[in-house]
């Protein structure tokens, strides 16, 4: 017998994804759903007049969860067809119902409809966890909405912003992703009962050319499986464009969290904001002093994987032939579950990170003071002009002092002495008190606090309130 340690183990299962998402893509969920679909089909066919008994349906219901996987595996090895192997195993357990299991259906009836059910369930889980991430970021944004910090363009110091305003930019990206997930959930439709090439010919034959009953069958089965709308036309399979659109919404989340994790990693380098670091956590095998941003790095790593999987669904959709080919099957078995498992993982890691971000306010203030003298030069000029100075002369003086102060910082490794130079230059005629008055960082954050508060009140709070009763444990990472 082969031991687990002798074979490849999927890290998404072992290390990253949650038990909730793993269950949605488990064999038990998938194949019990197949059986539920066969029951829904039989019940609807019975209601519409086919010769199917209550005993047959009850027998099927009794064995929904008791799948004998050993029988399935043995039969599939023999006939090389997974759906028929499960029909065979179900028929052994349900001898009365055996003649009517899968009646008139094609493999895509259980395969495609189950895929859609799994994606709907998984999207709901993603939506709920994303709402939790947004709640944590909303709390963080409001807590630090008034704290000035250096803004960066091109990763060069720019005008000031606030810690809360910066995190609101992260939150806005996630809001766009949330809206896309909700949109996908609202528009996802059921394949329903369409037959071998999507024409419903087999069901039309079963119901003696009664088109109304075939239409009713499609509607009844779809409703019984929790879908209010059906895909109006299909081939044997639903359009693989659905897979592309769904995974695109996951790619959007991955893109946002990758960007956010990059920002956190850069902020940790600046020693301004740090992701959680546990008491006994080791940062480096060689450099014991290090506090590496491993959580954010893991988000970025898995996010890249999700983003690349989206290209896979695009290729699959574009390569389909006529009513169907089978070159999508093996690909879908990997791409769809793993996209959801990896997205689930980065959301769980994000919950862990945003629940414990550490802000070093004194370091943020120190970095501001290092750059603020350069940033307030226009304000100094305006104040000096008010005191009777010549703007053109003052501008040239500021330029000269700024260049020399910058040289001292870069070449000599000295402190920024620009303000000292200006204070000592009689051209400006400014007192120490006047210059110090200009050094309050809160004078340069604009409407950042008001923007954040309005944004959260109007767009984020309604979402948080709607999903406030849905929670998942914010736990330590598996590894």
Report on the architecture of this protein.
It holds the Pfam family Lyase_1. InterPro entries: AdenyloSucc_lyase_C, Fumarate_lyase_CS, Fumarate_lyase_fam, Fumarate_lyase_N, L-Aspartase-like, Pur_lyase. With 479 residues, the chain is mostly helical. It has three domains: 14-93, Orthogonal Bundle (Fumarase C, Chain B, domain 1), CATH 1.10.275; 110-152 and 160-197 and 224-279 and 291-359, Up-down Bundle (Fumarase C, Chain A, domain 2), CATH 1.20.200; 363-439, Fumarase/aspartase (C-terminal domain) (Ribonucleotide Reductase Protein R1, domain 1), CATH 1.10.40.30. The chain has 19 helices and four strands. The strands form two sheets. The chain has a two-stranded antiparallel ribbon. Strands 3-4 form a two-stranded antiparallel sheet. Helix 3 (27-47) runs antiparallel to helix 4 (54-62) and helix 7 runs parallel beside helix 13 (329-354). The longest helix is centred in the N-terminal third of the chain and has 37 residues, at 107-143. The chain is elongated and about 105 Å long. It starts with 10 loop residues before the first helix and ends in a 13-residue tail after the last helix. The relative contact order is 0.12.
């Amino acid at each position: 017998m082969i031991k687990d340690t002798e074979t490849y183990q999927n890290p998404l299962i072992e290390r990253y994804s949650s038990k909730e998402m793993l269950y949605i893509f488990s064999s038990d969920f998938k194949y019990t759903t197949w059986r539920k679909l066969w029951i829904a089909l039989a019940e609807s066919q019975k209601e519409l007049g086919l010769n199917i008994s209550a005993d047959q349906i009850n027998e099927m219901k009794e064995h929904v969860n008791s799948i004998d996987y050993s029988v399935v595996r043995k039969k599939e090895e023999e006939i090389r067809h997974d759906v028929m192997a499960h029909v065979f195993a179900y028929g052994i357990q349900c001898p009365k119902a055996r003649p009517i299991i899968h009646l008139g259906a094609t493999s895509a009836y259980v395969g495609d409809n189950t895929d859609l059910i799994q994606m709907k369930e998984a999207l709901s889980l993603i939506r709920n966890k994303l709402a939790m991430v947004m709640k944590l970021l909303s709390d963080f944004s409001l807590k630090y909405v008034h704290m000035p910090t250096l803004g960066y363009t091109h990763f060069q110091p720019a005008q000031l912003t606030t810690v809360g305003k910066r995190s609101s930019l992260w939150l806005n990206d996630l809001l766009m992703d949330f809206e896309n997930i909700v949109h996908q959930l609202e528009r996802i439709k059921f394949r329903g009962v369409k037959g071998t090439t999507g024409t419903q010919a087999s069901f039309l034959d079963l119901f003696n050319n009664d088109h109304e009953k075939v239409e009713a069958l499609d509607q009844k089965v779809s409703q019984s499986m929790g879908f209010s709308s059906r895909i109006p036309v299909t081939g044997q399979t639903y359009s693989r464009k659905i897979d592309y659109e769904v995974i695109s919404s996951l790619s959007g989340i991955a893109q946002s969290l990758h960007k956010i994790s990059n920002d956190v990693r850069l902020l940790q380098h600046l020693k301004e904001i740090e992701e959680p670091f546990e008491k006994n956590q080791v940062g480096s095998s060689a450099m014991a002093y290090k506090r590496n941003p491993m959580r954010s790095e893991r988000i970025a790593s898995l996010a890249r994987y999700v983003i690349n999987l989206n290209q896979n669904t695009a290729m699959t959709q574009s390569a389909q032939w006529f009513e169907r080919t089978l070159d999508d099957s093996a690909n879908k078995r990997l791409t769809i579950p793993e996209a959801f498992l990896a997205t689930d993982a980065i959301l769980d890691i994000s919950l862990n990170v945003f629940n414990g971000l550490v802000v070093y306010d004194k370091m943020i203030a120190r970095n501001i003071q290092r750059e603020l003298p350069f940033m307030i030069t226009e304000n100094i000029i305006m104040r000096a002009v008010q005191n009777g100075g010549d703007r053109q002369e003052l501008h040239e003086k500021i330029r000269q002092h700024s260049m020399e102060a910058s040289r001292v910082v870069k070449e000599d490794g000295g402190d920024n002495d620009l303000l000292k130079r200006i204070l000592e230059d009689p051209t400006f005629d400014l007192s120490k008190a006047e210059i110090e008055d200009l050094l309050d960082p809160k004078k340069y954050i604009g409407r950042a606090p008001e923007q954040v508060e309005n944004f959260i009140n109007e767009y984020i709070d309604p979402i948080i309130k709607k999903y406030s009763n849905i929670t998942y444990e914010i736990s330590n990472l598996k590894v």
